Amino acid sequence: MEAANQAKVDVAEARMKGQVFENHREANAELAKKKAGWEKEIKVSEVESSKAVALRDAETRADHLSKASVA
Which domain of life does the UniProt lineage start with (predicted)? Predict the structure, then answer.
């Protein structure tokens, strides 16, 4: 009888460990998705800021050229 009870305990522990492992794996997958999203947002922000700087430089150059041609 004691062996049967120990077997039930062993099975329960194995199931619990399996569930913990599965939860851990799902959490890692979720974190990987979030990380990918954050990296995409960073790249988009970098491109947008580069374009904004280039546009501002172009506007500044155009402004200087128009002032130079008026003078």
Answer: Eukaryota
